[in-house]
Amino acid sequence: MYFVHSVFYFWHVRLKTIIYTLSIIAFIIVAGFFLCRNYLLHIAFEKLQTKLTKEVNLNLTAKEINFHGLLRVEASDVNLYAEGADTLAIINEAACDIGFLTLIKGSIGLDFLSLTGVNIQLFDSAGHNNYKPLLVKKPKEEDNETIVTTAGYDEQMTTLFDRVFKLLETSFELNDISIKYSNEKENLRFLIPSAKYDLRALNAIIYASILNQTDTFKIKFNVVENRKKYMAEFNNITSMQHYLPFFSSDSSLKIKLQNMVCHFNIEKNYSNKMVMNCDLQIKNLSLYHFQISPDDITIYDAGFDLNCKIFDNTLQIDSSSKIILNKIYTSVFLRYDSKNKRQLTLQASFPSMQSQNFFDGLPYNMFSTLKGIKTSGYLSYNLFFDCNFNSPDSLTFQSTLKSENFKIEKYGIENLSRINNDFTFEALDGDRVAREIFISPVNPNYTPLNQIDTNLIHAVLTSEDGSFLYHNGFNEDAFRQSIITNIKEKRFARGGSTITMQLVKNCFLSRNKTISRKMEEVLIVWLIENKNIVSKQRMLEVYLNVIEWGPNIYGISEASAFYFDKKPSQLTLEESVFLASLVPRPKYFKYSFDKSGIIKPYMQSYYDLLKRKMFVRNWIATSDTASKQYVISLTGPAIKFITPTDSLPNDSLQIELNNVDDPF
Fold first, then answer.
1. What φ, ψ does residue 198 adopt, rounded to 5°?
2. Going by C-beta distance under 8 Å and a sequence separation of 6 or more, which residues neighbour residue 618?
3. pLDDT by residue (tens digit) across 312-324?
4. Which residues, other chains included, contact 621 with Cβ-Cβ below 8 Å and sequence gap of 6+?
5. Cα Rg, the chain, nearest whole Å
6. How many CB atoms lie within 10 A of CB 68?
7. 395-432 per-position pLDDT tens digit
8. Number of helices (H) and strands (E), helices first, in the chain?
9. Strands 72-82 and 110-125: what pairing?
10. In terms of C-beta density within 10 A (0-12 exposed, 13-18 middle, 19 or more buried), how is residue 315 classed?
11. Handedness of CA 455, 456, 461, 464 (dihedral sign)
């Protein structure tokens, strides 16, 4: 018993000694810190100044910077300016809580940041720019031997999110923030009266002003689960909304947005690859771009539920992902391999749905001719696209819109059946109306189909759309070939329009080359062909009577008289082939001839190609393909246009012909 008591007493005394010693050491450290902390603070501040100057060309100064309280640093009259440029920002008062250990190491790690009275000014006009030096990263000093590695998508995204997560680990409070931006086109100003982030939630109100127009934005951000789940919300609470800042002046893309809510999850899966889910809900989104539509396109309700996987060289949106556009519910799958294969795969589909919901769900102003259409029945759609960009000839494209008990109860703004009767066609030359043509037997220049030489009909079909009489408005193979050609040439070198599509474009739509016009064209073609609104014979008859065949020459009757002083029923095979070759480039007819009025050699090759295709379709006899020398004698007014000298080089038309649609 005495032994146990002695041992206990020994360790009791020893423990008291250890605690006493540690207390003295802690006191010395704390006392030393308080005696040296301002010195350490200025060392850390100087290191921060050096780092900003070296890495991002940014200079940082402060009138005063000192400790206030235990670990709070306060500064006044802080200035930020790019090297060799005017001041970027002035901060009246700044305060931050710094980490004890980071300060001991000679750096500044922030736990809290407070800024009051901040004025930021960015300008880029009249050759003056005060933020451009920030965008030029100074080269780093490196060893002679460097190893260049390319990070995969997963590594790039991990690095990006790590940086974002680092920012989210600092709480802050902002008061009286003013940001001005000006260039030669616009002057923007943002005011933030107050904003507070406490590591869990951010709430802020932002006033954005441009051209005496002010919008008020309410911003919310919540950390649901650290480094995994987040929620962000954007609200424009202005009654009369304007285009968002930076999309409001001469920008090609203009955007209006009332509300957007995003729930975002991120995690690593079993194979250490990044897996993300983004649930995005949007209300009242308006877009304008001159290549999309001449008017604002409005989507009242949109939802995106995207399940993404990011691998080393692959981005993938799983087939469980959904897109909701107003009342249109679509499932999507997308996969892109960026390395050796450069393979893009896209699948999209919406299941059978009420047809009226489909038409009601189309973006406002994107299908103006169908506005007000009433339908019954059901529609479903499937799209599959697969392309290896290193081997585009293997491209696969399938697009199918199916109907069940589908009926058009009432046409929209445009009566799609009007071309079955007499109507006035407006022939456009660019954006202006060149002629008005009355499509009716009353018009002496109107030629019924049965009064047009069959060789001309077959030559035009061969040149423009060989499967017109059999397809449902679309030549999928021709469209596939046009995509392949465009990929190979890295430009829009070839289209895939059928005669039905050309007719719809000419009779119902404007000539503007926009995405909305093309999509509207496709939908109208499907309606006309699948509901038999207009017969093939009527479409072909109207087409031959409205298309341009030369300078201000419209319709086959005018073309026959202009070139050969004949009626359409009197044309020969060679004359028909010649006229068919003009359809893609009607204003260039005179460049088919040399100075003596003889057809140029490469044009003769083109005529031979048309004839061979006509023969394959049993539209002409073997004897019709025997001649390799084509003599076209212009006997009408067109002969006056054949000038002694050409204004184009000999191969100019050949270049044009190489870019002509060839759906065969």
1. -115, 30
2. none
3. 788 889 989 999 9
4. 615
5. 36
6. 9
7. 888 888 899 999 999 998 889 999 999 999 888 777 77
8. 14, 22
9. unpaired
10. middle
11. positive
